[in-house]
Amino acid sequence: MTVTENDIVELDRIAVHEAVRVVGLAQEPDWERGTPCAGWTLRRLVAHMTAQHVGFAAAARGAGHEAAYWREPADMREPAGVHRVAATAVLTAFAEPGAAEGEFTLPELGRSFPGRLAIGFHFVDYVVHAWDVAAALGVRLELPEHVLDGALAVARRVPVDPARRGPGFAFAPALDVPPGSGPLEEALRLLGRVPEEWPVRG
Length: 202
Description:
Layout: H1 5-24, H2 42-60, H3 79-95, E1 103-106, E2 111-114, H4 115-137, H5 145-155, H6 183-190
Helix pairs in contact: 1-3, 1-4, 2-3, 2-4, 4-5, 5-6
């Protein structure tokens, strides 16, 4: 699947809206649940997601080099609300004319990237993190097939070098993909998730 510049902004928008939806399903006792992100509670995962939204929004405006934008919020007493505001900010930034044509400085990756490529990073991250939240809550992720196909296309291009996977990096080491896997399962396994360990309830 070839993902064009306009496509990637729209695919990202759909993934972010789904992440907002599943985060909004969490009830107060859920915030201390474990997640597929080893060692992170749901509250900590959503804090990370919030910080990434704010950081990418800054990067789209040319301010990605400023470390303050990438810090997790100090006040996470209302995680869903804080995350929703940040999600709106990043979608607004990406929708600005020419955003995908600019350069995004991404400190965690140590350099700048073309906007379209950087938005692709954000997109696949939010398909995976939306799944992380849904998995922690035991609910089903609801994304159209073309979005999952787009996420898989990006996931297949993520480097598998062991020196760039594992603790301290965005993704765990890639896992084998069983024959017949669908696009979501394949993308998750390529990015180090184990879907069968997180069954959907009901």
